[in-house]
Every structure is written in structure tokens, then in C-alpha cells.
Amino acid sequence: MSDAKTMKLVITRFDPDVDAVPRTQEYEIPVQPDWKVLDAVNFIKDEVDGTLSHRWSCRMAVCGSCGMMVNGEPKLTCKVALSDYGDELLIEPLANFPVVRDLVVEMEGFMDKFKSVKPWIITAKEMAAEEGTNRQSPAELEVFKQFSMCINCMLCYSACPVVANEPEFLGPAAIALGHRYNMDSRDEGQAERNEIFRGEGTVFSCSYANECSEVCPKNVDPAAAVNQAKLNAVIDWATGLVIPRKGP
Amino acid sequence: MKDLLLRLEPVIWVLFGAGILVGTMLITGWILIVGLAVPTGLVSADALAFGRAYGLASHFVGRLVLLGLIALPMWKGAHHMRHLSIDHGGAERDAVVAPILYGIATIGSIAAIVAVARL
Amino acid sequence: MRLYTLFGATGIVYLLVGFVALRVVWNLGEGPEAWAAVLEQLENPIYIAFHALALVSVVFVAVRFFRLFPKAQPAFIGPVVPPPRPILHAMLYAAWIGITVVLSAILAGVIF
Ligand code: FES
């Protein structure tokens, strides 16, 4: 630990059995120059205070579980270097989510939104095995590939000013996911999803603040997806006015 | 009201989109000349003499351009003000704020149609 | 304050600028006296300051929105494939500057 320096981390603590409201706790710890923010939090958990709760798993920006507010900005803590910050760091649970404990947030509502956009390939009729496989060209893949890179880290929900104020809004990642299937050449569920996009939690609640895309660690660009989805939802709506849909 | 708003969302969004895209493109020249250059004397007031102004404005294309530069920015304005309200803790009051703002834009748009039609 | 808040706040200016333009055109329809009166009002420093603010607002909106617009176009819109993003971005600027130059020239009496 030759070139170690010390750093002060101010971390939000909340124990629902004891605390009425979240409080903060300060930790002075020695840090290594090559540490990520997550390494510092793990050091506290392992060496200083075992009661601290936080989520992490892969440590390589893949699992999407280590999201926290770092100095007020949603970040994947395993991806951001500690050296990007000064001597003091403020670490809070992801904004816009209910807190379970310390830095752990409740993901239930978020998962429901994910499911509500029907994130699977919908076809009018199932293809029999003998018919072979569903083919897709590289160009057809390119159309939606970017939107399928989401790791569900929820940083975009923390950054979104609409999510902050309209709890029913589907939100960036869920809309990007729905849009990803709408743009998939194998999918036939556009009408269903566009209906959902125009329903409660509508894509039109988005004000294109673009904050989600600025924090996305995977360059999914959810703001692009949401706003593309708006245009598709409008075209689908206008088409429905001219050609009434068959159905029940 | 919330249901009605939800059903109108696609129309509102199209008007907003036209406002920010076409509205911005049309209103810039208007602001430059009518709002700034002529009032400050940079451009001679003769350019906006009644006869000339009336002739330009009452031309078919002139009417369309004027209608666009009056009404479209109103929709951009109303929609963005609604979002500003929601962003500042106004999700609850949106059921009141949104109809008022879109109401203002609707009245302004109708007035704009009358204003250019009667030239 | 984040940039998107400022972007939303330009909405207030846009709504007002629309109504000022409505008032100007309305007065044109009222006849020469009303027209002269409204043009004189526009010389009021408050109006000039407002239009200066409006100019700053539209430039800010244009720059930010033209940057956000291209990526909001789906890879295909029905049978239509939008131009590549940098080209679309340039087209928006070309249209904005072109329309503004022509409209300004007409309003200033340079052409027509
Ligand atoms: S620990 Fe898996 S993404 Fe950070």
C-alpha cells in the first residue's frame, strides 16, 4: 500500500427497522490509484463496516447491479474510476427508486414495466420446427442491435426527470426494449406494443431531455429509442384512423 | 380529462414537433426583421410600409407563412411549458395545467387563422 | 440547472412570441392606423429586449434540437429510409438558414 492515499466517502445509510429517514455516514479509507468506486465501497463493507448493504456482482459492467448515485450522478460504480473524483465522494442509492436498505433499491415496479412492453418476439402463428429457422440479415440486426445492449442497470430511470415525477411512465429502458422488438424483422407485435406505448405510461410523457442517454453506460441511447417509438406510435395511430383495425 | 389528454397525445406531439421544427425555421427571420431590425432602425421602416406589408401578407403563400409562424411556436411553447410544470413537481396539477396551456394554444391558433383569413 | 430545463423554459418565449406575432398581423388587418400603432409599439425597449431574448432562444432551440432530431428517426419509416444522421443534421441547418435568409430578405424589402 505504498502509494495509497486516503479518501472520505459519505454514504447514505438506511435501516428500515431503525431509521425513520435515511442518514449519512462518513468513512475515511485508504484507497489505491487503480480502484473503481465499487472497490472503495467493497473495502468499507469488508474491512470497516460489515453492516453496509449494496449490490454488485460482475465487476465488469455487464450485470448492471452496481448502480449508485456518485456525487449526484447515476453511475455504474464498477465502471467509474475513483481517480476521476477529488478527495471526497458522496454515494447515495439510485434516485427515483424506493430504498430497501442503505444503497439497495426496490426493483419490483421497474420489472413490471419491463414485462408490460411484451419483450419477446410476437408472431401471428408459431413456426413449425420442420420449416427451419427464422432468418435475419446483418442489416436487419443492425436496425435494433444497439437497443438490445441494455443491461437493466436502471441508471436511465434515475436520470429521467419524467420518471421522477410521473410514476406510471414506462421509462427509458422499458420503451427502448419494446422498440427493439418493434424494429425486429421477425416480430409482428408492433400494433400491440404501439397500443401500450399510447396507453397509460405513454411514450409521449417523454420530454426528450436526453438525460437517460447521457448516463447510459452501454450507449444504448434510450432517448433515441423513445423518440423513434413516438413517431412509430403516431404513424400506427394515424394508420388506425384510416384503416380500422380488425379484431374483437 | 386525463383520458382525453392521453387520447390526444399523438396530435399534441405532432403539433409540438411541427412547432419546434417548422416554427423555429419560420420565426427566426420574423424576429430578426420585424422584432429587431426595423424597430431599431437597422432596416428602413419603408420595408414594412402598410401597402407593402399588406400585399405580402395577403398573398396565398404569405398567409400560410404567417399562420405557421404565429400558431406553430404556440404549440411548441405550450407543450414545453407543460413539461416544465411536470418537471417541477407538477404531475398532480397536470390535469389542470395541460388543458389550460393547450387551450391557450388552440385559441391562439384559431385567432391566427382568422387574422390571416381576413387580410 | 440542467440544459433541458432551459430548453423547456424557451417554451414561455415561444408562446409569447407567437402571440406578439398574432397581435402584429391582427393589426395589419385593422388598417393603416392600427398598423402604424403596432409598429411603434415594437420600438419600445421592452419589446426590443423581448425579441432579443427570443432570438437567443430560437438559436438555442435550433442548435439543441437539430442535434437531437436525427437520432429520433427510426431506421425506416414505412418504406422510407431517412438519410444518414450527419447529413440529416446538415440538412436541418441548411433549411433553417435558407428559410431565415429568404424570409428576412423579403421582410427587409431586399427582394419582392
Ligand atoms: S458489478 Fe456488474 S455491472 Fe457493476
Summarize model confidence as the mean pLDDT of chain C.
96
CATH class of the largest domain in chain C: Mainly Alpha
Biggest sheet statistics of chain C: none
DSSP helical segment count of chain A = 9
Unreliably modeled segments of chain A: none
Rg of chain C, rounded, reads: 18 Å
Per CATH, the superfamily of the largest domain in chain A is: Alpha-helical ferredoxin
Average the pLDDT over all residues of chain A and give the rounded result: 93
Features:
heterotrimer, B: mainly alpha, 3 helical TM bundles of succinate and fumarate reductases, 82% helix, elongated, C: 112 residues, mainly alpha, 4 helices, 76% helix, extended, binds FE2/S2 (inorganic) cluster
Describe the structure.
The complex is a heterotrimer of chains A (248), B (119) and C (112). Chain A is of the alpha+beta class. Chain A has two domains: 5-105, Ubiquitin-like (UB roll) (Roll); 108-242, Alpha-helical ferredoxin (Fumarate Reductase Iron-sulfur Protein, Chain B, domain 2, Orthogonal Bundle). Chain A contains nine helices and seven strands. Chain A has a five-stranded mixed sheet with strand order 2-1-5-3-4. In chain A, strands 6-7 form a two-stranded antiparallel ribbon. In chain A, β6 and β7 (104-105) form a beta hairpin. In chain A, α2 (108-116) runs parallel beside α6, α6 packs across α9 (222-242) and α7 crosses α9 (222-242). Chain A starts with a strand and ends in a 6-residue tail after the last helix. Chain B has one domain (2-117): Up-down Bundle (3 helical TM bundles of succinate and fumarate reductases). Chain B is 82% helix and 0% strand. Chain B has helices spanning 2-37, 50-58, 60-87, 94-117. Chain B starts with a helix and ends with a helix. The model of chain B has no long low-confidence stretch (mean pLDDT 96). Chain C has 112 residues and is mainly alpha-helical. Chain C contains four helices and no strands. The longest helix of chain C has 28 residues, at 3-30. Classes of the chains: A alpha+beta (248), B mainly alpha (119), C mainly alpha (112). The interface between A and B is medium-sized, with 17 and 13 residues. The structure holds FE2/S2 (inorganic) cluster.
Short account of what is shown:
Chain A is of the alpha+beta class.
